[in-house]
Write a sequence for this structure.
């Protein structure tokens, strides 16, 4: 069954309204307690872990089919779009937003800051997919640098798994599968199954190709002006970060703060 509006359900989940720039007229509600629901991680990640050789089932996530179906209904409720806020350094927040349009559902991956006039776009999953939106370096840094004073999800494993669908990096480090496997175990995946599931989640993305991520460089079209440094650019044309700034309209100072918050400035 779908989660009732404004009522506590099994697991203590209670949804309150939330506002995100650009979605003022959407029925957004807090989703931060949803990951505690049985079946949530299967409902959220099952599609991403499916490969030609790997056909996962909810039980591999430590869940059964009924719990997974119930969590899926909560995730895709057209009347209550769940928002997962992932606050990180410098007052920034990564946002995972269920865009539950009746005819065109999907998930938006965004970055917000109170000083920005616009929302930064990382990736979109759904009918109008766009990505990748994060390098491995950025994903892990965000997951490990919560802002305890801001509302949202602060557990490292949940932060990493929520943002994992936006990942696309052709230069994954050797320890990437171990990091994801540890996060899955903390999320309730049985220990013997976590390594294989982690490998599947990091295999070929069903919606886009892994990308190369490089620091900003001077463009021949820039008129010789110094570029805003520190924010990585993506070489995959499907990505919202292909050849453009992650957050449009921000100042150089705001850019530098974002780069430090993402762990990409100063460069090593």
């Amino acid at each position: 069954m779908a989660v009732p509006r404004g009522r506590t359900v099994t697991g203590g989940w209670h949804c309150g309204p939330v506002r995100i720039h650009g979605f003022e007229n959407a029925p957004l509600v807090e989703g931060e307690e949803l990951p505690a629901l049985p079946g949530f991680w299967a409902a959220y990640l099952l599609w991403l872990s499916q490969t030609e050789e790997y056909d996962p089932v909810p039980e591999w996530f430590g869940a059964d089919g009924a719990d997974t179906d119930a969590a899926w209904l909560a995730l895709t409720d057209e009347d209550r779009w769940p928002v997962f806020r992932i606050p990180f350094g410098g007052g920034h927040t990564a946002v995972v937003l269920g865009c539950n349009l009746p005819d065109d559902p999907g998930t938006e991956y965004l970055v917000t800051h109170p000083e920005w006039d616009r929302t930064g776009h990382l990736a979109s999953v759904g009918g109008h997919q766009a990505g990748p939106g994060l390098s491995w370096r950025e994903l892990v840094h965000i997951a490990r640098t919560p802002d305890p004073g801001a509302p949202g999800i602060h557990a490292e494993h949940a932060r990493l798994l929520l943002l994992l669908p936006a990942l696309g990096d052709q230069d994954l480090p050797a320890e990437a599968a171990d990091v994801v496997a540890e996060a899955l175990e903390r999320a309730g995946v049985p220990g013997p199954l976590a390594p294989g599931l982690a490998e599947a989640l990091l295999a070929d993305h069903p919606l886009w190709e892994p990308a190369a991520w490089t620091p900003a460089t001077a463009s021949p079209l820039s008129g010789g002006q110094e570029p805003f440094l520190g924010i990585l650019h993506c070489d995959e044309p499907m990505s919202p970060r292909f050849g453009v700034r992650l957050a449009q309209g921000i100042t150089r100072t705001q850019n530098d703060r974002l780069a430090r918050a993402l762990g990409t400035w100063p460069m090593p």
